Amino acid sequence: MSVVYQRVALIGLGLIASSMFWAIKRGGLAEEVTGFARTPETRATAREIGLCDRVCDTVAGAVEGADLVVLCVPVGAMGSVAAEIAPHLKPGATVTDVGSVKRAVIDAVAPHLPDGVHFVPAHPLAGTEHSGPRSGFAELFDNRWCLLVPAEGTDIEAVANLRKLWEGMGANVDEMDPEHHDLVLAVTSHTPHLIAYTMVGVADDLGRVTDSEVIKYSAAGFRDFTRIAASDPTMWRDVFLSNKEATLEILGRFTEELFALQRAIRTGDGDHLHDYFSRTRAIRRGIIEAGQDVDAPNFGRGKAQV
Ligand SMILES: NC(=O)c1ccc[n+]([C@@H]2O[C@H](COP(=O)([O-])OP(=O)(O)OC[C@H]3O[C@@H](n4cnc5c(N)ncnc54)[C@H](O)[C@@H]3O)[C@@H](O)[C@H]2O)c1
Ligand SMILES: O=C(O)C(=O)C[C@]1(C(=O)O)C=C[C@@H](O)C=C1
């Protein structure tokens, strides 16, 4: 792999930024990666573990001279960080972000960026329930999707270079418009997270089943919920507040379906339950057949057995 950018600046040194740093280093994709974190503690940790070639005490120091600036902060902080970096951006630089929501981030960031700076929003569809500078690893983006969401008329070379960077970090890249992105992610990521949070909350609230029983006897499905529900509260608060409309639409559909299933259980309508579960099983099999299940043993190796 060859160098895509001379200098990349990572702002907000958590899971995604640290994974990007290790993946950029693995691929030899930048000559220098600078980093900025808000707190002295995070900067000290970054220096201790060798995260970034240069950790800066000011956002200006990290951004000055950078060809690519990546905003890796929670969605709700993107606008204020964009305002802070704006005066220090090199003319012709590209600014991107990794936020889980796109329309709200574009609206918050774009107005701050000076003319002559390219803005190419992005979203890697990869993560874990961990956060902070120690949580990243180079393989996080391997075989995962990264969605680019450039506005019409964005400089072609700026988009092509960012695509090259993500491909160099192991991702498959697609382009999408922001509204569609937010609806798709409300279905595939945001609402499922809310359901996981709720289910774990229900278990915690249920007096007749103790917390220690929940921990001891937790079956695979519920264990997955607890993993998801351990995700960063700030990140997910911001996701829901920023993708309100799409999440509320999907939640509305979800509750309708849930009520229908609840009724089928109450009335003993086994046909309804069986038909429903057959339909959902077909979706799972479709994902595996398409080779999209990154956790399945056959992922990326052609057709999986279903
Ligand atoms: N975790 C995931 O699964 C995942 C996946 C894809 C995209 N994302 C997106 O990536 C972004 C970062 O998420 P993460 O998982 O790396 O979170 P993280 O909590 O690991 O890291 C975020 C970092 O930003 C810092 N920060 C917060 N507010 C800041 C501010 N105002 N100025 C400077 N730094 C600030 C935090 O201190 C933290 O170090 C979020 O926008 C999130 O939506 C997350
Ligand atoms: O695997 C996980 O822990 C995740 O939740 C990652 C996940 C998701 O797949 O929903 C979470 C949020 C992102 O914006 C992208 C990826």
From TrEMBL:
The keyword Acetylation does not apply. Gene3D superfamilies: 6-phosphogluconate dehydrogenase C-terminal like domain, NAD(P)-binding Rossmann-like Domain. One of its GO terms (molecular function) is prephenate dehydrogenase (NAD+) activity. InterPro entries: 6-PGluconate_DH-like_C_sf, NAD(P)-bd_dom_sf, PDH_C, PDH_N, Preph/Arog_dehydrog, Prephen_DH. It comes from the Bacteria. One of its GO terms (biological process) is tyrosine biosynthetic process. Pathway: Amino-acid biosynthesis; L-tyrosine biosynthesis; (4-hydroxyphenyl)pyruvate from prephenate (NAD(+) route): step 1/1. Coiled coil: none annotated. Keywords: Amino-acid biosynthesis, Aromatic amino acid biosynthesis, NAD, Oxidoreductase, Tyrosine biosynthesis. Its EC number is 1.3.1.12. It catalyses: prephenate + NAD(+) = 3-(4-hydroxyphenyl)pyruvate + CO2 + NADH. Residues 6-295 form the Prephenate/arogenate dehydrogenase domain. It is an enzyme of class 1 (oxidoreductase). The keyword Plastid does not apply. Pfam families: PDH_C, PDH_N. Belongs to the prephenate/arogenate dehydrogenase family. NCBIfam families: PRK07502.1. This is prephenate dehydrogenase. It comes from Poseidonocella pacifica.
